[in-house]
Amino acid sequence: MGYSEIDPDFVFQPLPMNALTFDTLSMADRLEQAGFSREQARAQTAVLAGFAESNLSSLATREDLERLEQRLRQDLATRENLDQIEHRLRRDLATRADMVRMGEDLQAEMKNLDQALRSDMKNMDQSLRADIKNMSLRLGGEMLLLKWMLGVAVAGIASIVVRVYV
Q1: For residue 45, what are the contacts with CB-CB under 8 A and spacing of at least 6?
Q2: Where would you find the membrane-spanning parts of this chain (predicted)?
Q3: Annotated domain spans of the chain
Q4: What would the pLDDT profile of 86-122 be if each residue is shown by its tens digit?
């Protein structure tokens, strides 16, 4: 195949980054030298070139792999952040549960103290009432004694006054 056989409608297009350079002219010439007809050599070369092009288009480039690596690193960092957040939430929930238990314990303890205080106040009230009653009885007895003593003293003074003046 010489220069004169090049397709006049051929438009040069730059190769993509992942294109495998494949010398179709050289392959067609080698097939012709091996005994293939020109049409057979061109057909086989075209099939092989199409196969290589279609398989290479599905391969990942270095840039594709680098973008994937970056995305995976970001996903991993996000996962680690989520794990840390989950750990803090679990710790906070445990702390909250501990605080709820402590609040319940404090309420129970305050209830017990309230009952004990009410019982102590009732006992003290009863004791004070008994003490007041005893003092009242004692004072009543002492008042009666004082009345008698005062009566005896008045009678004694009256008898002395009567004896002195009579």
Answers
A1: 24, 27, 28, 31
A2: 144-165
A3: 3-59, 63-137
A4: 998 888 888 888 888 988 999 999 999 999 999 999 9
